[in-house]
Specification:
alpha+beta; 2 domains; disordered N terminus; 25% helix; Bactericidal permeability-increasing protein, domain 1; 10 helices; six-stranded antiparallel β-sheet
């Protein structure tokens, strides 16, 4: 439970002399079956009377309810600052839409709906809201629209001067507004444009803002109500609260309900957005062919124009068609698997081969890797920071041939190849189209952009392979591919966000770059899936053209 500090100087009074219920308060008979109906009417009527204080029973005016100061602790999510409020005036508690009260086993539960509750105060804050920096000091207000308060007062008996009284034990309060509106004057030292944007974001995302500190608000307001009720109970003896004897058992029906406004992210996983396209021959089902992205190179462009085929159909054909076998180019090193240090040879050979792919090797079916061109890619929405689908077009990826290091490990038993690659940097340039939320901030736009993986990003590729035979020669095919992407830093660049609003676009991109780990981690599996299938498709095209005996010496030994 988040900490809250209350200074209820006006509310907590000393225990005074015994008092009776005011004549305008209704008294209910505890022995009758309609106790709850009576309590409902009596408590509603009593609350509506508190437009002025009733001093003889220690009740303050609730219209407005004045609280000298209130501190709400920082949340763990969007609200990363302590909220310091002074000179609070809370209005709306005497204007009740609905109220229902139940009493059983010394528990008084009250569920009440108000048209509106408004807090007016002086504030001082400094920290972050929805990962945006926020600071300011001045007047402000918070309005709750149609809030439902459900409070449970466990009542304990005690004796004072030979008379029995009630006191409240540990109360619980649920506060469920249907909407909230924040007003904070003098944010950012009076920068009205920046303050207006931040307040708009807060109000657009009020559920997330409130949800992060809801427990603190409930604890704070619960203590306020308990303090008021305890002061009343300390003055009015138990015998003056009810008529009749306490029944041994009383059955009641409560109206406590589960909040129906809590947002659950509508998350569709990456694979749920894909459609299985086809299967490979020889009963080898290749997951990489489930990918709904299209890979196209300069070589594919040539074939596309020459044969007038659409790019995805052409690429699919190139992947699954068993064409004539070829040998490794003479510039590619061939390793002997009988050598105890064959993995060392493989590391050097594969690194050298990748570095040569600054131009396509058409005979091998290998594209140009610098840049690697991909017509389009769709990354599904995450379930946290990235609440939008990422649509990229005309993608060029640079840096894949500029390897800082490469370690290869081929395990002949399970036929598994693991490549551990490090690059100085890898950059994706593209045209993008997005609309949704990023780190709870609204984001939309269409235009050029880039994502750069910096600081020697590490890519760990794992290829599971299987043998098949074609024309009496043995070949390999990738049956499964996985990728772990471990960037040290990511930088995002998106032009024309918010229809060209440069100031707002720059602010949101800065937030994304400051929080790149949260942004990337939410959609990391989708990126890893997409890139692993791209790499697997390229590798598979090579494997299906070059027989095993031309890839390695000593495979069958």
């Amino acid at each position: 439970m988040k900490k809250c500090t209350l200074f209820l100087f006006l509310l907590v009074l000393a225990f005074g002399e015994n008092a009776k219920l005011p004549s305008t308060f209704k008294k209910c008979d505890q022995s009758k079956s309609d106790l709850n109906s009576c309590l409902t009417a009596a408590i509603k009527n009593a609350m509506e009377q508190l437009t002025e204080p009733i001093k003889e029973v220690g009740l303050p005016s609730m219209e407005p309810l004045e609280v000298p100061s209130l501190v709400i602790g920082a949340g763990t999510g969007p609200v990363q600052f302590q909220q310091n409020y002074k000179n609070l005036k809370i209005s709306g508690y005497t204007k009740i839409d609905q109220l229902e009260a139940t009493f059983k086993d010394n528990h008084l539960k009250i569920a009440v709906v108000f048209p509106e509750i408004k807090l007016v105060f002086e504030y001082e804050i400094n920290g972050r809201i929805l990962v945006l920096p926020i600071s300011g000091k001045g007047p402000g207000a918070i309005t709750m629209v149609k809030p439902k308060f459900v409070i449970d007062f466990p009542l304990e008996e005690y004796e004072k001067n030979g008379t029995k009284y009630y006191k409240v034990g540990k109360e619980t309060l649920s506060m469920q507004p249907q909407k909230m509106h924040f007003e904070l004057e003098n944010l950012f030292n009076g920068d009205k444009l920046l303050a207006s944007n931040v307040l708009q974001i807060m109000n657009d995302n009020w559920k997330e803002v409130y949800g992060d500190v809801q427990a603190s608000y409930e604890e704070a307001f619960g203590k306020i109500f308990t303090s008021i009720f305890n002061n009343f109970l300390s003055k009015v003896p138990k015998s003056d609260l009810f008529d009749g004897k306490t029944p041994n058992n009383y059955s009641v029906t409560t109206i406590l309900q589960t909040p129906n406004w809590i947002i659950k992210p509508n998350y569709l996983s990456f694979w749920e957005q894909l459609v299985s396209q086809f299967q490979i021959a020889n009963n080898v089902i290749t997951p990489l062919l489930k990918l709904s992205i299209r890979v196209e190179t300069k070589f594919f462009h040539y074939l596309q124009k020459r044969h007038k085929m659409n790019s995805f159909a052409l690429f699919s054909l190139l992947l699954i068609h068993f064409c004539n076998s070829v040998k490794l180019p003479p510039s590619f090193e061939k390793c002997d698997l009988r050598d105890n240090n064959y993995n060392q040879c493989l590391s050097k050979a594969i690194k050298n081969a990748i570095q040569q792919l600054t131009i396509p090797m058409e005979a091998m079916g290998l594209p140009d890797l610098d840049p690697l061109e991909i017509p389009s890619m769709v990354i599904g929405a995450g379930n946290g920071a990235v609440q939008f689908q990422q649509n990229y077009f005309n993608i060029t990826i640079t840096g894949l041939t500029k390897l800082a290091s490469l370690d290869a490990n081929l395990d002949l038993g399970p036929k598994r190849l693991i490549l551990d690659l490090r690059y100085p940097q890898v950059q994706m340039d593209f045209d993008y189209e997005i609309s949704g939320k990023i780190l709870l901030l609204p984001i939309y736009g269409k235009g050029p952009g880039s994502i750069t993986f910096l600081g020697n990003p590490r890519f760990i590729l794992t290829f599971e392979m299987a043998e098949f035979e074609k024309r009496k020669k043995k070949f390999m095919t990738v049956t499964n591919a996985t990728l772990s992407m471990e960037p040290q830093l990511i930088q995002f660049h998106l032009e024309n966000l918010f229809n060209g609003d440069k100031a707002l676009g720059d602010n949101v991109v800065q937030v994304m770059n400051d929080n790149w780990r949260e942004v990337f981690s939410d959609v990391r599996p989708s990126y890893e899936e997409a890139f692993s299938q791209i790499f697997a498709a390229i590798f598979n095209n090579l494997l299906r053209k070059v027989p095993i005996v031309d890839l390695f010496d000593g495979w069958d030994l």
